[in-house]
Amino acid sequence: MTQLFHPGQHILFIGDSITDCGRRDHMAPYGDGYMSLVRAFVTARRPELHLRWTNRGIGGNTVRDLAGRWDDDVLAEGPDWLSVMIGINDVWRFFTGRADEAVPLDEYERTLRQLLRGAVDTTGCRLILADPYIIEADPTDGQRVETGRYAKVVEALAEEFSAIHVRTQQAFDRALTVTESADWAHDRIHPNLPGHAIIAEAYLAALGL
């Protein structure tokens, strides 16, 4: 980790409800999900770094919503590291009768690339990109197939930007070989605490911890 994080660096997480997790109300300021777990374990393992952490997740967000608040919630913060996990709602709304609020794949890719380029060019930050996921073992499930297409975009962008790539779908897939989806989330999307731990473990592995 000494090759990644340096003393006093600012690490900012942005995304949807999976990142938010009550950070704007009863669980301020970090929420009670994967972001808080990552912060806790990194801090415990390297307390001398005195890292600064910020959570800017907002429930229900798509990449369109991130674009609308990017200047204030990312660029103005000037992070050294930026973690982005977005795309679940972009896909999910195609499957919940809200297709007008869903984000087509080409728009998703175009918008996310523009946001990441703007962040890197403006702040000089390094990136951590996490895949959108669905906690579903059946690879032929329609939402699972579509989510995989958006995750491929994230994978390609991680390579394009030399980002740390967090393979969240892969992490849940490993767990689902011996468990059921309901063990991790009631709706295949919003994790319970062990589900958030799956995501946090994927982050720590990607960071080499």
Q: Can you describe what's shown?
A:
The structure is a single chain. The protein is of the alpha/beta class and 209 residues long. The chain has a domain at 61-206: SGNH hydrolase (Rossmann fold, 3-Layer(aba) Sandwich), CATH 3.40.50. The protein is 44% helix and 12% strand. The protein contains 8 helices and 5 strands, in the order E-H-H-E-H-E-H-H-E-H-E-H-H. The protein has a 5-stranded parallel beta sheet with strand order 2-1-3-4-5, with helices on both faces. Helix 5 packs parallel to helix 6. The longest helix is centred in the middle third of the chain and has 19 residues, at 105-123. The chain is globular, with a radius of gyration of 16 Å. 41% of the residues are buried. The mean pLDDT is 97.
